[in-house]
Amino acid sequence: MSIVNLRHLQPGTRIGLSDGSTVEVVSNPLDGVWVFGRYLSAPRDASLVGTEEMIFAQDIVEIRQTP
Amino acid sequence: MTDHGDDVAHLFLQQKIESFLYWEAELLDERRYEEWLALLDEDVRYWMPMRRNVKFGELEREFTREGQDVNWFDEGKETLTRRVQQILTGVHWAEEPLSRICHIVSNIQILDVKPSASAPSEVTVKSRFLIYRNRVETETDILVGKREDVLHRVDGHWKIRRRKIVLDQNVLQVKNLTFFF
Amino acid sequence: MATGRRYRGGLVDLGAGLISREIFVNEEIYAEELERVFTRAWLFVGHESQIAKPGDYFVSCMGEESVILCRDREERVHVFLNSCRHRGMKVCRYDEGNTPVFTCPYHGWSYAADGKLVGVPYFREAYHGKLDRSQLGLVEVAQLATYKGSVWATWDPNAPGFLEYLGEFRRYLDLTLDGWDGRDGGTEVLGGVQKWLIPCNWKFPAENFSGDSYHNISHRSVDMVGIGPSGSGRRDMRERLLARRLQICFPERGHQTGVYVLPKDQPTPPAYQQSPVVSEFFKQCEAERRRRRGEWGRVTGSPGEVFPNTALHPRQPRTFAVWHPRGPHQTEVWRWYLVDSESPPEVKDFLRQYYIRYSGPAGLTEQDDMENWNYAHAASRGTIARRYPYTYEQGMGFEVENYEWDGLRLPGSVMDITEAKSSEHNLRNLYRRWAEFMDAEGWDELATWRTPAS
Questions:
Q1: Over the stretch C212-265, which tens digit does the pLDDT of each residue have?
Q2: CB–CB contacts below 8 A, B to C
Q3: Relative orientation angle of helices C345-358 and B77-88, to the nearest 10 degrees
Q4: B50 min Cα distance to partner chain C (Å)
Q5: B66 burial class (0-12, 13-18, 19+ CB within 10 angstroms)?
Q6: Confidence of residue C1 (pLDDT cuts 50, 70, 90)
Q7: Please, what is the end-to-end C-alpha distance for chain B in angstroms?
């Protein structure tokens, strides 16, 4: 697992989180700490799917798909 | 061989330009302000931008813009002459008594020469400065930064056509800029 | 905070016109001042043109403290303390920019531009969902006001609203903020706020700009060499030479300014004559200003001060300065320069160049002020020096209320110094108000205009 530089995540990128969720990047404040993302899948809590949340850098484990 | 000839021409030019900049520093340190003004082209541009702390990726906004924004200096020979005249009135209290000043000029690099090193008429030079100013009793300022100059030859002498002064400070750590960079 | 120290009638003795040097150099008085003055007064923070779009921010200063001036997504303006609620780290160490959130690099807390805490790492896990985020937004000023483009703020919820705080001084503040042609507002600040340190107490420059009409000798050298916009002196003087020269202050508010009033039917003399474009533009604007403002169009201003530490100068140069306290022995000056948004580019550029050579650390005029403030302060730190108060006696007793001249009445307490050449009327006023703030427990004591004298 490599450390992702959040500054490089373009909107539309799909990222995998440590809890197994898949999130699509909606916008990037370029602070290297957070991105705004929409849950595409959320094994831990299905009600998250479709919702937009701030995603923390340390919760991101991989880049699944670039736009 | 052309290469070797070029090297020699560059070596001589480097020495000449360094001498010019050291001579300029000498004039300023010795308070020979009017002679210093004579080293400036009549159309000289003398610009010292202010610097901002900006986010990574937005560095184009780090410097205030020449000719558009408020800068520390953004002027020509007319205003520089006024500055010298002000010091020479003897009643410019910020420079009365006169400061003691030392310009250390270093890292002199010729970035460009036109049309050639062996017959140069215009040179782009970058240098670093450390200006030490001591004033009245214990007032001491040290300013460090870079200068990007364009020099050109006028009647067989080098003149400063353009100087951009890049001071490595954000909030200015000195109370005034009564001296020349 | 009882110290046994008396300000009104003690360290600031306006009956005798004497002010103790202690108020400039004493560490304890400085600490009290931060508490008594800077937490309760209205302070200038910036200009709306610096935060024109949602997400725009400009990091500013109130007293010693870093604040963020910003505009949120709903276009509302805010001023926040630049410090994370968790462990204090500055959430913004850039000077200006645009951002949807301010994120702390220490533990990652993140705040929206409306101040709300929107990002807390491991909120569900480490905090078990038990942190009341609604109580942990960025600390916001108690009150904020925008006035003709200028932005002001106070930490004191009990302070009067900004317009009440200004009182009638507002008409003089307008001389800096209204257009050259007399329209309401319409200014923008030029890019680049000058920031620099001077080794003196903030009250030296504050009193200078309150209306030190006496210190022209400081500027003799710049007058001799001539940097003025018509080629001589340091500014266009003809208007001033024809005018009544006044010092106007508001004793209950602590604001004051110099003012010039032309005689009735005297057209404004030409100015900015180094540039035909600018002098013509000025001429047209003045005609329009007279038309819009009537008799008030005869009035122009010179240096002034909004209590406590915002200096204004309406023309030649046109600028705001804030004297930020940095300990008793140091001031950090921030200087903004203004132009009318709708003036032609040649006018803006001409003024910009004039401002640069006039004011600031590279300004031929301001340099000499700073030298005097520096060494006046330095010479006042000594044990013996502190025993000798400064004299502020000039012109005591010659002030006039309800001043009127040639058909124009001017609000405020006025000292006509046309013949006298100078007075310290305005300076006394600054310290009167300063002493009141230092002594007063609250706004009941400070807002004396609310209780008419019996």
A1: 999 999 999 999 999 999 999 999 999 999 999 999 999 999 999 999 999 999
A2: 124
A3: 20
A4: 7
A5: middle
A6: very low
A7: 40
C234 and C121 inside one domain: no
Q: Which residues of C touch A54 (CB under 8 A)?
A: 110, 118-119
Same domain, C411 and C264: yes
**What is the identity of the amino acid at B175?**
K
Q: What is the number of structural domains in chain C?
A: 2
Q: What is the pLDDT of residues C95-132, one digit of tens each?
A: 999 999 999 999 999 999 999 999 999 999 999 999 99
Judge whether C116 and C123 are in contact, CB under 8 Å.
no
Distance CA B4, CA B2 (A): 5
- Chain A neighbors of C110, CB-CB under 8 A: 29, 31, 33-34, 54
DSSP-assigned beta bridge partners for residue B112: B124
Looking at this predicted complex, what is its ipTM? Answer: 0.96
Q: Does A58 touch chain C (CB under 8 A)?
A: yes
State whether C265 and C388 are in the same domain.
Answer: yes
Q: Which residue of A has its CA nearest to C55?
A: A29
Closest-CA residue of B relative to C370 is: B175
Residue C90's nearest CA partner among C76, C71, C109 is C109
Q: Is there a contact between C105 and A58 if contact means CB atoms under 8 Å apart? A: no
For chain C, report the end-to-end CA distance as a whole number of angstroms. 31
Query: What are phi and psi for residue C380, nearest 5 degrees?
Result: -100, 0
Closest chain B CA to residue C335: B70
Q: Which domains does chain A have, with CATH numbers?
A: 6-64 (2.30.30)
- DSSP reduced 3-state for C186: coil
Q: Do C103 and A57 touch (CB under 8 A)?
A: no
A29 and chain C in contact, CB less than 8 A: yes
Nearest by CB to residue C121, choosing from A29, A36, A58, is A58
Which domain, by its residues, includes C120?
48-143
Contact residues on chain C for A57, CB-CB shorter than 8 A: 108
Can you name the residues that pair with C399 across neighbouring β-strands?
Answer: none
Q: What is the DSSP letter of C183?
A: -
Kind plus residue range of the DSSP H or E element containing C435: helix C425-439
